[in-house]
Design goal:
By secondary structure, the protein is an alpha/beta fold. It contains eight helices and four strands; from the N terminus they run αβαβαβαβαααα.
Length: 246
Amino acid sequence: MTGPSDHPDYLLPLQTSADERARGAEVAVLPVGSFEQHGALLPLATDTVIAVTVARAIARAHPVLLLPPVTISCSHEHAAWPGTVSISAATLYATVRDIADSLRASGVGRLAIVNGHGGNYVLANVVQEASVHGNSMALFPTELDWAAARAAGGLVTGPETDMHAGELETSLLLHAHPRLVPADYAEHDERADERGRFLTRGLAAYTESGVVGEPSLASAAKGKAALASLVESFGDVLAALGNPSS
């Protein structure tokens, strides 16, 4: 069950129904990204590309149903920059719930959300509420998963400094999709460690370029190791969901 979807330029899964019947997956993986500014160096679709990259790596390692991504989400904090598009938290909540309901109707009762955008806070509520009602759902990566990935990759900056379009995101793209990273990526560093009223004021109050971090520290090797760590961490998600194949 391999084919065009294994090519790095394909961001949509291209498996057939026959493929999925043979796989018999009990867990579906839903990448959730965003369409928001990432400074002048990374694409608006960066979070979606990263979420799909992580989800696709997971699907290579585990017998899961890989779903196409949700490409627009809650990016209101980036509204000051051209190109950013958002939907409401209520719409994202309803979209994920509808997908989970559809999956259960087709016999796939467990859903793991691979979230590529930190501003999608509502996804935590979706997962918590689903669990209360006996529906198996997980949100990945957690802060601990990201911390392990940073350590595995040998990243220099932590999440407070490396918040947006910095070392981690640039490293992941340099590894998986190097053509999306411009040659001058090292010239786009901007620090904005103090963001105390970020939710109220938006990101534009703290950064002129839209970058919060140091992409100059990024490397493909860091991205490769970080991605491998995330795939390994996902095994714990399968165990938490109670997947007998984990």
